[in-house]
Design brief:
This is DUF3800 domain-containing protein. By secondary structure, this protein is α/β, with parallel strands linked by helices. It folds into two domains: about 5-105 and about 210-325, Nucleotidyltransferase, domain 5, CATH 3.30.420; about 105-205, no CATH class. It has helices at about 5-15, 50-65, 70-75, 80-90, 105-120, 125-135, 135-150, 160-175, 185-190, 195-205, 215-225, 245-260, 275-295, 300-305, 320-325; strands spanning about 20-25, 40-45, 100-105, 235-240, 265-270. The chain has a five-stranded mixed sheet, with helices on both faces. Helix 11 (about 215-225) crosses helix 12 (about 245-260). The protein is globular and about 60 Å long.
Amino acid sequence: MTGNGEDGVRAVADAGFLEVACDESGSDGENLTGGNTDVFAHASVRLPMAAAAGYVQEIRDRIRSPAEEYKANHLLREKHRAVLEWLLSPAGPIHGNAHVCLTEKAFFVVDRAVDLLLGDGSEAVGLFRAGPGAFGDERWREFLAAANQLLRVRNDGEPEAPVDVFFRTVQALRRAESRTSVAGTMEQLAAARARAASYRARITAGPTLVPVLNPLLPSIVRTAAHWSAGGRPVLLVHDRQNMLTPERIAWLEETARRSGIGLAGVRLVHARLDPRVQLADFLAGIARKIASDELNGRGDPALTELLRPYVDPASVWGDERSWELLARGGTQERSPVR
């Protein structure tokens, strides 16, 4: 079921499908290596509407801010630490009823570039983890920026310019360090110019239904996979997003169907009108901040521990140290859609 039809939503609910509310935090469009955030988080909450409304009101009563609309940053203020810990704690209102897909943006760029150019993303983790040490931080950042520019749909310059820049960067890295542990991967990338040119030709020829660099769509598919794993199809109630056009919602439903995921549909709502989506918005913003702090070596162990039960093992994450802390030894799975 696609769109906003209330009759259709009631029919889905009557059919016994699970209804889950979703929102995201950290969207910078396709600018994943030079945006305002280094982590994207997609959160989902499964609660009855009345219960969610009660919890949102309790948060307001505990924080007592005059703000008309509450956001995650209200809970992240140090003076409201007790409210944040209550929300995430095992005795809190969303424990066991919420889920977060995390995306480390820099790794997402490498993962998507390797998958596109080599036809298989399995080399991405090794390249991402070894890259800074093998090539140096500055050269590695240049590689990330060039890969980001190659993959993004929007390009204000010559159509072939991103291809030229990317392969010049790859060649420079190969010349500088030819004996690294990832030399084989770099050689394969250097030989993939035809694939890159074909990709750029496709996206400049007309509208792109599913932008390679936007983590929202694969996160939604993974969210549906999580909640429908018990065999009960799920209806996702999502905050309105420009990315979620009717055509892309249809793509989500078809992709889920082909992957054996029980996605009954996606319904878009205004977050302010659905307290379940408001709770998902809180969780997404909180998770993004906690994960970003851990990624950058300034994590709060207590908050990371509280977040851990919510983190999806198929999160798109490349940094080994922070993933160990966020998942505490959990085996990282590969998402059904990358």
